[in-house]
Amino acid sequence: MSIHPIDYLVHFSNILLLVSYSVRDILWLRWFAVAAALTNMPYFLLQPTVLWPPILWALVFTAINLYQISRIYLERRPVVLSEDEQKLYDLDFRSLRPREFVSLALVGEWKSAAPGEKILSEGEPASRLCIAITGSAEVRRRGERVGVFEPGDIIGTSLALSGAQSPVDVTFTEPARYMSWPLASLRTFMDKRPDLRVTLQGLVNRDLAGKLERLLS
Predict the structure, then answer these.
(1) Residue 155's beta-bridge partner residues?
(2) Fewer Cβ neighbours under 10 Å: the N or C end of the chain?
(3) Which segment of 77-86, 135-144, 157-166 scores lowest on mean pLDDT?
């Protein structure tokens, strides 16, 4: 049986597909799939009658794979954190991948506080979660000082979980820089990223445990 030289393109294309099925990295799988589709196209074009249907489908699969390849390269770009983001990441979020942390930070808003600025008011529900990277906040109940939030502490955790009114006032006692997440936006983010829910819940649990330990000591 004689093999026409152009038939080797089909064999080579299928070899590329076999290789694509053997690699573990999805990026390389897609690149081999693109190469296989493009290798097949000259075979279809050089037939006595051009085979347009497989050519069109090869173009469709190539376009889809190239789009997904571009997304993978974007996701794998090195993440560069700002100075404030790096401080916050080091304080609380090392259990997250940097790109996941950036996604979470985009939901919130950086704010600067002057001494005396109140972020929780006694008798009012919490509308946001806050974490300071600089500056301490004093906790008072009925005017009496009962504790202090240090940089890295999550302010409003238990209120966000319970939806209850705040039993305390929380006021910054010095200039502070903090991240503020509106609860509604944070819930929407969590609903869209269930993969992060367990990790963030672990962070909240560690924060509550740390506050309880300080209180008991």
Answers:
(1) 130
(2) N
(3) 157-166
Topology of the domain covering 83-216: Jelly Rolls (2.60.120)
What pLDDT score was predicted for residue 212? 62
Residue 203 has pLDDT above 70, yes or no: yes
Q: Which two tokens stand for residue 213?
A: 């330990």
Mean pLDDT of 144-158: 86
Residue ranges of domains in the chain: 7-75, 83-216
- With H, G, I as helix, E, B as strand and everything else as coil, classify residue 64: helix
Q: Are 34 and 66 spatial neighbours (Cβ–Cβ below 8 Å)?
A: yes
SS3 content of the chain, % helix, strand, coil (to 5): 55, 20, 25
Give me the residues paired with residue 134 across strands. 177
Instruction: For residue 196, give Cα distances in angstroms to 94, 110, 153, 202, 203.
Output: 13, 21, 19, 10, 11
pLDDT grade for 214, boundaries at 50, 70 and 90: low
